């Protein structure tokens, strides 16, 4: 690896498989030095080996569980010591927040089915919902808070948050909540935290009513709506950075039980495009794959 000052360094979360691994591969192809992270060391190291077997050199592994502040702190120390700065943060790690009824997948034909067809066999529980919000939303937030000081040392800092088409405001039935989340100029971290708490309270007390919250894939959808809203708050606070969120497409990975329509190569294109935006590029925006879209 070259001199740390001249290298462009990217950190990708949840990169042992799926879209995250492919984002690493495509960034490496563009000459970026990649810190591939995964919560499981064996899975992460195996992924790095795969990339090296494919010819990549400038890739290193570090363990990272975005739900664990100590793990984030240890990664931060590593990057600070090794590279003294960070150029690109891709918040990719995510979970679905649900389980499927055990027998649901037998005889299930992933090619002929859409994720929505699994709704009747999805099991939503409070613990899983809490975990989903903690990983998808608070994981993203913890990573941004920890790494913004290192991104501020970059000439061209970029943050890419993986959201979803389910992270658009249209999935929230309540007009009051939608109005607050839409008001990007006045929305604050504190207010967003309050909305999240009331969602989790309603979930715990079985009060996920159809006129307030999404009733299927509830925690996943709501966690991604929160990621989208948080992206706007951050972009407003850090005007010198390009901070955007992206729906990668409906991709064939474990999180969709492989029902997706796009390959990981196609799914990684939007996130990689946003990671490599030229200076003065858009910020605080929602992208649908590689196209500028709306939060609605
Ligand atoms: N696939 C799609 O159609 C689609 C559509 C919209 C948005 N997205 C978003 O795209 C992102 C990537 O998803 P994917 O499709 O590639 O799914 P995937 O193959 O299931 O990959 C998810 C990755 O996140 C990691 N992860 C989960 N919890 C973590 C934690 N606490 N700390 C660190 N890593 C963690 C997983 O690690 P383990 O292997 O250890 O579990 C895995 O590497 C997610 O944010 C997802 O919501 C995907």
From TrEMBL:
- Enzyme group, top EC level? oxidoreductase
- E.C. number(s) listed in UniProt: 1.1.1.-
Query: For this UniProt entry, what's an example GO CC term?
Result: membrane
Q: Which Pfam families match?
A: adh_short
What InterPro entries does its record include?
CBR1-like, NAD(P)-bd_dom_sf, SDR_fam
For molecular function, the Gene Ontology terms on record are: oxidoreductase activity, acting on the CH-OH group of donors, NAD or NADP as acceptor
Query: Which Gene3D superfamilies does the annotation name?
Result: NAD(P)-binding Rossmann-like Domain
Source organism, top-level taxon:
Eukaryota
Q: Which SUPFAM superfamilies match?
A: NAD(P)-binding Rossmann-fold domains (SSF51735)
Q: Which UniProt keywords apply?
A: NADP, Oxidoreductase
Family under the similarity heading: Belongs to the short-chain dehydrogenases/reductases (SDR) family.
Protein's UniProt name: Short-chain dehydrogenase/reductase
Instruction: Please report the organism this UniProt entry assigns to the protein.
Output: Rhynchospora tenuis
